[in-house]
Amino acid sequence: MNQHNIPFNSSMSSFMSAASQPSVQDSEFNQNTQYSPEQQDYCWQMIKINGQPPTTRNCHSSTQFGQYLIIFGGREGDGKKRIVNDIYIFDTEKSNWFQPKIDKSKLPQLRMGHSSQLWKGTHIIIYGGWNGAQVLSDVIFIDLRKGIDKLQIVIPSMIRGEAPMRQFHTANIIDNQMYVFGGGDGKYWLNDLLIFDLVNLEWSGPVQTNGIAPVGRLQHSAISYEKKIFICGGEPDQFRQLNDIFYLDTSNLTWSKPQVTGDEPSARVSTTGCLIDSRIYYFGGYDGVQWMNDVHVFDIENNRWSKIETYGYKPRPRCRHTANIVKGQLYIFGGNDCELSFNDILALPIGVQVPEPTILKDMIGMLENGTFADVTFVLGESRIKAHKCILASRCSFFASMFTVGMRESQESVITVQDISASTFKKLLEFIYTDSFQFQHLGQDQVIDVMVAANRYGLDRLKRLCEKFLVKHIDLDNVIELLYLSDMHQAIELKRMCINFTMAYFDIVTKKEEFKKLSKSILLELLQNK
Question: What sequence ranges are listed for the domain BTB (predicted)?
Fold first, then answer.
């Protein structure tokens, strides 16, 4: 047995048996509160609906298809708390609920804790779940090609491979493969990976993966981004919750656990995740004690968590709800807490998400890849490609070099002497990005860059180096820095070295190397005495 496959003692989540207690924060709305335009982006709105909504429910699925949210199945929260197999559709533009015209005899069997994914914009793929008596293993296709009101349900008659039973798992479709992770089979909390080929209707798995896989879990979140699947949270047994992040690179089936920073959410089960650009928005969940209604964002590009302050009519804390993004709005439907199940629908405008600027990354990429390069610098055994127009526009030295009449203006290969390849590369990186990274550089390396910056007329880079070196003046290096700053016109560094020397005059002047300073420097020191 896989060491991460934990015995599964119940078909229902552990929090269903938790003692009833007040929620962490009831729905709240202050009519007198004033919101700035920026705050409106995160101001909750209670949707005034038309039409007959579904019954209150949890553990259902909600799949976005254009402007529509297609709700299937789940467990009713009122009355006999039946597990259902009905289909409701919410039109986000008209705020209208309706049911499609479907022969009820053709509906899939009732279920909860299943997965539902849109494939190619033409089909919804429903898989697994629990029908109240057993864990399911069937795959159902809902054909959308004839329109939202004429759904066709197709149950494949022939599927290859062993169909695994799963509930409270996750499924993500990338290309024509559906990747199923975790969940329970009625006996264990699982961490295996299954793949279903949607074209050939064939199961494979458990699939061998690389790296360290997440522990077995159910009721977690899984979001796909650039052929990677990001797993967050869930429960590894009846007593604990998780807030870890893993991702599976489907190109090589390798698991990784990123090092994250920022304001992480508390460990929780049954939170929902929705992707906008490269950010995953998580809402709600249950942390083992309290039901939540907070919003956290995970920035995939920077591996950073942040908590979003929201306003307006906040949803009642809940879990086992669904969430979808439609035209920049996060829609929440249903779910439950310790007292109630819900059939309300609320929207949180996320606003226009402006990606972080990429010009520095793009410019460095051009330099490193040599894309469209029209000049090559030769420094010993090293050859560095670059772009004349960028160099000339950012550096007067290169502008003069490439001016008509100069020999280098006609050459595409230029030999550079009296400077190391590593230092020259750092000069070019500054020219391309107008920034300089001092991490992992020693004092001698920074001195080399400062000297080169002075030679090439890069005054801003020279001053950045001066600023760095000023912070590192001490009794061991002050004489060397004073000499170099005088030789290479590093005015501020020289001034600070003189000040330091005057403060420790008796100690510095007794050093042997002090006698090697030029007469002009010695004169300046005497004038400051």
Answer: 373-440
Tell the residue number behind the tokens 């402006």, with chain if given. Answer: 354
* Cα–Cα dist 39/58, whole Å: 30
- Angle value at C-alpha 309, between 43 and 231, nearest 5 degrees: 105
> 127-138 as b/e, with b when 16 or more CB fall inside 10 Å?
bbbbbeeebbbb
* Chain segment 132-190, per-residue pLDDT in tens: 999 999 999 999 999 998 899 999 989 999 889 999 999 999 999 999 999 999 999 99
State how beta strands 57-58 and 177-181 pair: unpaired
Q: What is the DSSP letter of 491?
A: H
> By residue range, what is the domain housing residue 488?
461-529
Residue 423's contacts (CB-CB under 8 Å, 6 or more residues apart) are 445, 448, 449, 452
pTM across the whole model: 0.68
Residue carrying structure tokens 């008796």:
506
Same domain, 169 and 313: yes
Counted domains in the chain: 3
Q: What is the CATH number of the domain that holds 400?
A: 3.30.710.10
- Examine the domain organization and report whether 490 and 390 are in the same domain: no
- CATH number of the domain residue 172 falls in: 2.120.10.80
Interatomic CA distance for residues 88 and 178, integer angstroms: 24
Specify if 501 maps to a domain: yes
